[in-house]
Amino acid sequence: MKARLTAALAKAPPAVPDGSRKLRISDTEIAGFTMEVWPTGGIVYWFRYTAADRRSREIKIGKARDISTDQARRKAKELRAQVSLSGDPAAQRDRLRAIPSFADFVTGQYLPYARERLRSYRDHESFCRLRLLP
Questions:
Q1: 56-63: strand order across its sheet
Q2: Which of 11, 68, 91, 118 has the fewest beta carbons closer than 10 A?
Q3: Residue 123 CB neighbours (<10 A)
Q4: Beta strands in the chain (DSSP E)
């Protein structure tokens, strides 16, 4: 479905068809700017684009209860400009997700290293388990 996404549309969105999990409404002005309506009444704004590597990407802008339609529209325009300048807005998010957490580092790298090289491995393991990880 296509329509101009406005505050009035967000206040009184169309009903989600029976048998559907959600209804997506695309904006007629900004390509890729969509509003997702859930049967529970929740509304989420999204921006969809095609990255330089020809992959279709999608970024969640925010929930309608947190931001207004005008704020979501401004953010979609910023993202559209960034994509036009050969940028990939989702790449930063992906880089941050690729950074392991402290718990992943300790269990995946440090403790296996300590097991092989330290005689006091049990002390290190218990210290990490009891003090650092919680």
A1: 2-3, 23-27, 33-37, 43-50, 56-63
A2: 11
A3: 11
A4: 2-3, 23-27, 33-37, 43-50, 56-63
Q: What is the pTM of this model?
A: 0.70
Token digits of residue 66: 């947190």
- CATH annotation of 2-89: 3.30.160.390
DSSP strand pairing (56-63 vs 23-27): unpaired
Contacts of 73 (CB under 8 A, 6+ apart): 5, 27, 30, 33
* 89-98 helix and 69-84 helix, angle to the nearest 10 degrees: 90
What are the tens digits of pLDDT across the range 90-126? 887 788 888 888 999 999 999 999 999 999 999 999 9
